[in-house]
Design a protein that fits this description.
Elements: H1 2-7, H2 11-45, H3 48-65, H4 67-81, H5 87-109, H6 117-122, E1 123-126, H7 128-136, E2 141-144, H8 151-160, E3 165-169, H9 175-187, E4 191-194, H10 199-207, E5 211-214, E6 223-227, E7 230-234, H11 237-245, E8 249-257, E9 260-265, H12 277-298, H13 328-336
Parallel strand pairs: 1-9, 2-5, 2-8, 3-4, 3-5
Antiparallel strand pairs: 6-7, 8-9
Helix pairs in contact: 3-5, 4-5, 4-13, 11-12
């Protein structure tokens, strides 16, 4: 663990680094906002095949400029697949991931045009009965999704189906960019709550029998449970909400198939309550990670490998929080690479 200790910095240095990174993030988001404002109208006027060509071009551009995200993807894939994927295969998959998210950006900009018959032609669906049954129970529904496929279209499609929906999302740091993104999202017909500031509101939504959409697949320090066989810091919120309200957890994903999409609604994750809440949360989120892993394995180029998913798992302070039976040292060596 020598490398971990060497990476530690004084508090002041960390604060300065964080300010520098936040400034860089806000500047980048301001630039992106300018591009999006100019491109939105164009994307909505283009034919879908032409727009998809633009999306693939955006993905290729993103691959070449986003060096940090490429490093994250290579590290994650090396950790998960080890020698199964060569360096060239990891790079090829990373390129496809960028291409996929370029397509998603285009569909996000074209979103206001995706209503009624357009959505019906663009989207097919499996497992809708799980959503109907959950809503009929009267305790609300936790729509458990991930940064996989086109999660923005998932919310738009559910709202178009008449589902009273509240989506929890991380708000961009640049205020004007945040307002722009929120405007497009709320124009789809659902409510948006900023991540980390919404527990009371979410409880109220579920008590009304409505739906909450959560995406707990990014780095967290809540609970450490396996994901692709390696403990990952995982958000506890979905499990806590289910245990508190009795709302069913329905795994839900919008995956790209060809030039269209398929909505996947899977059987609810059991959320039975015992006297040990900590164990209940770990059990539920372990199952949530397992379900997501199964879908990622089917659509590996549609998940956000570009995110530093195992960051907190390999922090020295969290080593003792790993479940028994997992080899921290071996996993850490794979994660670091040669």
């Amino acid at each position: 663990m020598q490398n971990v200790k060497q990476n530690a910095s004084p508090k002041r240095s960390r604060s300065q680094e964080e300010k520098r990174r936040n400034f860089g993030t806000r500047l980048w988001q301001a630039i992106v906002l300018g591009v999006l404002r100019g491109a939105t109208g164009t994307m909505q006027r283009l034919s879908r095949p032409a727009a998809l060509r633009v999306g693939r071009g955006l993905g290729s551009l993103g691959y070449h400029v986003a060096r940090r995200q490429r490093r994250y993807a290579d590290r994650n894939l090396r950790l998960v697949f080890g020698e199964t994927y060569t360096g060239a295969e990891r790079d090829a998959l990373t390129r496809r991931v960028f291409s996929h998210f370029g397509l998603c950006v285009v569909d996000f900009l074209r979103g206001p045009a995706y209503t009624g018959p357009v959505l019906d032609r663009l989207v097919s669906c499996d497992g809708w009965e799980h959503v109907e049954k959950a809503l009929a129970g009267g305790k609300g529904i936790i729509v458990l999704s991930a940064h996989l496929g086109n999660w923005e279209l998932l919310g738009r499609w559910l709202a178009a189906k008449g589902v009273p929906l509240t989506v929890v999302a991380r708000e961009p740091e640049e205020p004007l960019f945040a307002a722009y993104v929120r405007r497009i999202r709320e124009g789809a017909g659902f409510t948006v709550l900023n991540k980390g500031e919404s527990a009371r509101e979410l409880l109220a939504v579920l008590r009304r029998g409505a739906a909450v959409l959560l995406m707990p697949d990014q780095n967290s320090g809540d609970v450490f449970v396996p994901f692709f066989g390696v403990p990952a810091g995982t958000v506890a919120g979905p499990a806590s909400l289910a245990l508190h309200t009795g709302a069913p957890i329905v795994p839900s994903y919008c995956v790209r198939e060809g030039d269209g999409y398929r909505m996947l609604f899977l059987p609810p994750i059991p959320a039975n309550k015992t006297e040990n809440k900590e164990a209940d949360v770990a059990r539920i989120m372990t199952e949530a990670n397992a379900v997501l892993e199964g879908v990622v394995r089917q659509y590996p180029d549609q998940w956000l490998w570009l995110h530093n998913r195992w960051k907190s798992a390999f922090e020295e302070k969290n080593r003792g929080r790993w479940p028994e039976g997992h080899d921290f040292t071996a996993a850490y060596a794979r994660w670091l690479g040669p």
